[in-house]
Amino acid sequence: MKRVMGGVGVPSISICCLFQTGPPRSLSLKFRLKPSFSHSITTMALTNNTNERKLPILLFDIMDTLVRDPFYQDVPAFFGMPLKELIDIKHPTAWIEFEKGLIDEMELARKFFKDGRDFDLEGLKTCMRSGYSYIEGIEQLLFSLKKNNYEMHAFTNYPIWYQLIDDKLKLSKYLSWTFCSCTFGKRKPDTEFYKEVVRHLNVDPTDCIFVDDRQTNVEAATEVGIKGVHFKNVDLLCEKLSMMGIDI
């Protein structure tokens, strides 16, 4: 996500849903962005005293699962309007296209609003970066999981601006930004995205646990055999992971 922009006085839904009125049609791939730093999988975690890969692999949604999404409060304040008004005047598919890597940020700025009005793109990026923060208790959990040698990957609907998140919070200390929609051109809950994740990791789906704040995305994971956990808060997440045999 569990999301101008929006993977909640509005229901707890991801930014992507807020910006989508229908699926993008026949979008050209010529604008697919190439991230400036590696998306390769981090070195496979090894179990103590063996050369075997430690399973299960943990897959995490980012927005409103690990990181606070600034869209719902900070971004409307930046534009000086209520959230509902912002949603009403945004372009119906521009954010989705940006999120899938089909357009770059300059094209996003050009078509962000339905009426094509100009706005301060760099100011918006600064606003969002300022609003990113760890969900309470999450960094401690990630630290513990990393210490116990679990292999962890981001599995998120987000554009190239995920780099802004990492620049501020250094999430890559704990997990790899392996599965971003802007890199694969697919978004959750498209089951093909989940299948591609499993193929890329070269493991059985049951060897993965996926955590997301959106129930729809969790259900899509279970459809392909991945174990899903609906994120609500860090205490419940720790309890569920422990029940699944994860050493926290």
UniProtKB/TrEMBL annotation:
InterPro entries per record: HAD-like_sf (IPR036412), HAD-SF_hydro_IA (IPR006439), HAD_sf (IPR023214)
Entries under Pfam families matching the protein: Hydrolase
NCBIfam families: HAD-SF-IA-v3 (TIGR01509)
UniProt-recorded name of the protein: Uncharacterized protein
Species this chain originates from: Sphenostylis stenocarpa
